[in-house]
Amino acid sequence: MAEERENLTWELFGSASRELAREVAADGFMPDLILSIARGGLFVAGALGYALDVKNLHVMNVEFYTGVDQRLDLPVMLPPVPNVVDLTHKKVLVADDVADTGATLKLVRDFCADHVADVRCAVVYEKPASTVKCEYVWKRTDRWINFPWSVLPPVVERAGQALEA
């Protein structure tokens, strides 16, 4: 029998991101900017940006997962790395699709910590093994998640896209 998975549809993502925004608003946190962790966090950040009326969105590219349950030893920031001047003294909401091990979120949160007024994390899913306990979580699960943006294979496969040492 195949392992049971979480299946997030586009429609459910719409509801989930709206509920996540309500959680942030109910907490009284009013971010100055949303820092998205690419790629899955781009969708979350965009939805939160609209729902929380935050137009200042930034992107941080982090390579960690290389396939289904396959990852590098440590997450790596890819260029362009955000300029810390843009983050200085800001209230930052870090947005991602899932806190799995927590390593990616920790890297990004630690990158921000010395420069910002406040940094908090919002994710659609948080897994029990995550070393980062996010302030805002739509759902907790220990299952593998099928996200609507990554469930289908790429239209074009690009050779050599893996991070080179």
Automatic annotation (TrEMBL):
Record organism: Amycolatopsis echigonensis
Domain Phosphoribosyltransferase: residue ranges: 10-151
Domain of life: Bacteria
Protein name in the entry: Phosphoribosyltransferase domain-containing protein
Pfam families reported in the protein's UniProt record: Pribosyltran (PF00156)
GO MF, one example: glycosyltransferase activity
Keywords: Glycosyltransferase, Transferase
Gene3D superfamilies in alphabetical order: 3.40.50.2020
